[in-house]
Design a protein that fits this description.
Elements: E1 10-14, E2 23-31, H1 42-54, E3 64-67, E4 74-83, H2 91-115, E5 119-123, H3 136-153, H4 162-171, E6 175-179, H5 185-210, H6 218-230, E7 235-240, H7 242-247, H8 251-257, E8 265-271, E9 280-291, H9 311-326, E10 331-341, E11 353-355, E12 361-363, H10 371-383, E13 389-394, H11 398-404, E14 408-413, H12 416-429, E15 432-435, E16 453-454, H13 463-472, E17 480-484, E18 490-491, E19 502-503, H14 508-517
Helix pairs in contact: 2-3, 3-5, 5-9, 6-9, 8-10, 9-14, 10-13, 12-14
This protein binds ligand BES and zinc ion (2 copies).
One zinc ion is lined by residues 288, 291, 309, 370-371.
Length: 519
């Protein structure tokens, strides 16, 4: 594997006036009263206001316009609409504004990268100045959203080609400066630092998901987990090989692993903060390092995207990398049953009946519905440790993408309060997540004539739902939620301005937010 030190992006804050900085792009917040919400000189403001009118820029939240003629402050001015900032926003309105700002900043970064502009300044001097004390919180929220937009949009995956590395290096943003008033400098710096730390977890997840399956084997995930534990005194890690996993009862998981020559591993990470220890949450990630479908082999077209079938596991690893930095006070365990789904001569077959860890038997009717079989054991293992809640993340079904498209994950849960808390966390972080039903009447669709449950439903209807119902068979009474992240873990197209096509690191921000607020 090629290890490259990423060109670092410096995010700073300063209380200088924009005219002292002469930067590449100066981002100016514009309100819906078309007010230039900035510390720009009066003359420059006047000129900008004229252009705002010419362009019919309305200043509504998230609107973006470039003034390529620039000013004496910058080569290019970027207008970003922030709507009405004089009215007090309730917390939901703040989350919506933040996501619009992420997207707007993502667009500005895209433009900068297109033009090879390496430096950018955003003037937030008026936020928290003219708006009075109350707006300090809003300023912090905005800074956080802007850091997200900048860092996520500046991400590159360039491990395999010198040409691509050179091209991307030419484009990458190197410096981003927030202009704020002196009294906010230290707080702004703190917000930047905290957020950048968290986004390191997202970066790790994206790298792991983007990497080819040849470079991310079950052993790679185990090594990554061990490395994370070694670097953090709050974290320990145990890894079970095939033999140990068999003794621990992971029969269903091992039957999926049989078709590949890659050694399977069960990975268990434990985060134990010094204080707290009030609650314990298990996060389980689907860790299929490549999903060929097994004997129920997938069509060759699109099969390459199945290198991403360990995105749930990658989210667990990204999360553990930043738990300590996030100040999480509760116990968190991460469980990954990592293997490859291949059609080798020892592969499990359609028609086989396999036994999961909790004693339930599974009739395998399609070896491509393998994720749920591996998760059955991982979930039952988690249940036995008596956590307060279990959350699994899995690229589980194509049906979920068909239903929700690519920017939303589906959420299923057997506990309304857990479901609500996760939805809240996702909305705070601007990750698309929608609650899905888990109706009892669909359970009959996964009843088997020869085993306790079948691994695919009798009907093609609602297959993301019947997959969730299958998982439910393995969690008993424990509070549990399931996120089907098949859509948002990896975006083929330019759907969100702050993600280039490829891995997104979906879930790291939401789950951290959930854990930090869970008590
Ligand atoms: N890993 C796939 C689901 C998937 C599809 C993830 C597309 C990301 C993008 C999963 O193991 C699978 O193959 N599911 C099948 C289930 C079917 C056989 C019942 C599916 O969704 O088609
Ligand atoms: Zn599959
Ligand atoms: Zn799969």
């Amino acid at each position: 594997m090629v290890k490259i030190v990423a060109m670092s992006l410096n995010i700073l804050s300063s209380d200088q006036s924009p005219s002292n900085l002469e930067t590449g792009i100066l981002i100016l917040p514009i309100t819906d009263k078309k007010e230039v919400f900035s510390g720009l000189s009066l003359a420059a403001k006047k000129k900008t206001r004229k252009r705002i009118n010419q362009l019919k820029f309305s200043g509504e939240q998230g609107e973006v316009e470039f003034l390529p003629e620039g000013s004496k402050e910058a080569m290019i001015l970027a207008l970003v609409g922030v709507g009405n900032l004089s009215k007090e926003l309730d917390y939901r309105e703040v989350f919506v504004l933040k996501e619009r700002v992420r997207r707007a900043v993502g667009r500005v970064v895209q433009e900068a990268r297109k033009l090879g502009i390496k430096e950018m300044v955003m003037d937030l001097k008026k936020v928290g100045d003219e708006m009075g004390r109350k707006s300090e919180k809003l300023l912090n929220e905005l800074v956080e959203a802007v850091v997200d937009g900048v860092v996520l949009a500046n991400y590159n995956y360039d491990e395999h080609s010198e040409r691509i590395r050179t091209e991307l290096k030419k484009k990458a943003l190197r410096r981003f400066v927030f202009l704020v008033n002196k009294e906010y400098l230290s707080k702004t710096r703190w917000v930047i630092k905290e957020r950048k730390q968290l986004l390191e977890g997202v970066r790790l997840t994206r790298d792991l998901v983007n990497r080819p399956a040849e470079d991310v084997r079950p052993k790679t995930l185990a090594d990554e987990a061990r490395g994370i534990a070694q670097a953090d005194k709050n974290i320990s890690c145990s890894v079970y090989d095939r033999e140990k996993a068999r003794k621990e009862g992971f029969g269903a998981f091992l039957s999926v692993a049989r078709g590949s020559d890659e050694e399977p591993y069960v990975i268990h990470l434990k985060y134990r903060p010094k204080r707290g220890q009030k609650k314990k949450v298990f996060i389980v990630g689907k860790g299929i390092t490549f999903d060929s479908g097994g004997l129920s082999i997938k069509p060759s077209e699109g099969m390459e995207s199945m290198k991403t079938d360990m995105a749930g596991a990658a989210t667990v690893l990204g999360l553990f990398k930043v738990l300590t930095a996030s100040g999480c006070q509760i116990e968190v365990d991460g469980v990954i049953a990592a293997c490859e789904n291949m059609p080798g001569s020892k592969a499990y077959r359609p028609g086989d009946v396999v036994k999961a860890r909790n004693g339930k038997t599974i009739e395998v009717l399609n070896t491509d519905a393998e994720g749920r079989i591996t998760l059955a054991d991982a979930l039952s293992y988690s249940v036995d440790q008596e956590p307060d809640a279990i959350i699994d993340l899995a690229t589980l079904t194509g049906a979920c993408i068909v239903g929700l498209g690519e920017t939303y994950a589906g959420l299923w849960a057997n506990s309304d309060s857990l479901k609500e808390s996760i939805l809240e966390a996702a909305s705070r972080q601007g990750e698309g997540l929608v609650a899905m039903p888990m109706p009892d009447e669909y359970k009959a669709m996964i009843d088997s004539r020869v085993a306790d449950v079948r691994n695919i439903a009798v009907t093609k209807m609602g297959r993301a739902i019947t997959a969730a119902l299958f998982l439910k068979e393995f969690v008993g009474d424990t509070s549990w939620a399931h996120l089907d992240i098949a859509g948002p873990a990896y975006l083929d197209k330019d759907l969100l301005s702050y993600y280039s096509p490829g891995a997104t690191g979906y879930g790291v921000r939401t789950i951290i937010d959930f854990l930090v607020n869970y008590n």
